[in-house]
């Protein structure tokens, strides 16, 4: 066990922020189910907390994961995706909740996060297919998520300065000393 303490780690964070276009959902609860791949080709299923259904539910719920052996984890992570589902659970006559119904499913690749300048993305995700529970003619549900990666090797990777911005968070120059040249910049840890 002590040998694991000396290995560098990679920290991943997933945040379920909110959803929209769910005005068709009647009484019940909404939650987000997401699936993460592991190194041995299995999937881990996680569920957000259940909240009462509304047309624009808000969770703002984060999950943090730590992967031991950052170099191997980085390579594997680049090949993997996270599957997000918005699910609806209705209550029965006696207030007992039954099984859930899938309203939305979308996939986001960790590659998108690794390719971003800040190793973080926040975006609205929409599904390419609509569930049979979404009435025809309505806007499809959308889910706002955030994904981040932090770790010693990741934070010291070379970045390209685009020179088009004087703001460090847009070009990757963390110390604000961007000189506008197209050269390698190394991020500094706080």
TrEMBL record:
Record protein name field: C2 domain-containing protein
InterPro entries for this protein: C2_dom, C2_domain_sf
Domain C2 positions: 1-125
Organism: Aquilegia coerulea (Rocky mountain columbine)
Signal peptide start-end: none
């Amino acid at each position: 066990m002590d040998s694991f303490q000396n290995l560098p780690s990679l920290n991943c964070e997933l945040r379920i922020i909110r959803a929209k276009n769910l005005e068709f959902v009647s009484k019940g609860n909404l939650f987000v189910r997401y699936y993460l791949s592991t190194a041995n080709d299995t999937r881990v299923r996680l569920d957000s907390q259940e909240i009462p259904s509304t047309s624009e539910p808000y969770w703002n719920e984060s999950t943090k994961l730590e992967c031991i052996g950052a170099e191997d984890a980085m390579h594997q992570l680049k090949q993997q995706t996270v599957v997000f589902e918005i699910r609806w659970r209705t209550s029965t006559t006696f207030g007992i909740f039954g099984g859930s119904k899938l309203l939305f499913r979308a996939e986001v690749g960790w590659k998108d996060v690794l390719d971003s300048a800040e190793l973080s993305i926040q975006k609205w995700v929409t599904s390419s297919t609509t569930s049979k529970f979404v009435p025809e003619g309505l806007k499809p549900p959308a889910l706002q998520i955030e994904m981040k990666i932090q770790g010693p090797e990741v934070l010291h990777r070379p970045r390209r300065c685009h020179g088009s911005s004087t703001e460090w968070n847009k070009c990757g120059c963390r110390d604000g000393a961007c000189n506008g040249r197209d050269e390698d910049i190394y991020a500094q840890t706080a």
